[in-house]
Amino acid sequence: MTAAPGVYVRGTARVGGKTVFGPLDLSAPGGEWTCILGPSGVGKTTLLACLAGTADGVVLEGAAGADDGRPLAGRVALMAQSDLLMPWLSALDNVLLGDRLRGDAPRAGRAGCLLGRMGLEGMEGRKPTALSGGQRQRVALARTLIEDRPVVLLDEPFSALDVARRAQMQELAADVLSGRTVVHVTHDPAEAARLGSRTLILTPTGLREITPPAAPLPPRRPDATETLALTGRLTRCLLDAA
Predict the structure, then answer these.
(1) Is 20 domain-assigned?
(2) What is the SS3 assignment for 114?
(3) Is residue 190 part of a domain?
(4) Are residues 153 and 188 in the same domain?
């Protein structure tokens, strides 16, 4: 993988003349994990869509791109809030969807390995209707990780998982995405406290950065004093922004 670029979104986004966010200046450093929290409806998902080039109907009065000056197209993997699994495909084939759409040789071994690491061994042949919500979300995560892109956008990627599984998937994602530029939208302060090398809170008035502790990444231990303290700070900031 080539060096992961930093990414940015600058300006104001509007839909039908109504402001979704901005003006703001978001920058996510290359090769680091940036977490974005904030109240519902404040524009977090729209920020990711602007970076992914999927912001249909959104007018961005500004710019979104990479700090190396090259287009982001073809260098981004996006995991949306909904799993977007194809109901007629098996779990394995859903993970391999990108390969098939591009006409590439399906990396079945790699896909099977990812599903196994996610606790889905033996479920490769199941259709989405035979999977729980948490299992479906893990399949969608595997589909994102297998793309092996330098820039990865995650929108609530662990929201359907129980506490133990969520912690496991955070650690797996941190391992697989090491060295990538990750922009991660979450409503969970504890999640941001574990994963973020940079932590931002988006409010209707703009962005506020909360400096994380200097604990090793990724990820921080969930029960470490500095992680718990940062979780508390983020929670208080979100309460103040509500």
Answers:
(1) no
(2) helix
(3) yes
(4) yes
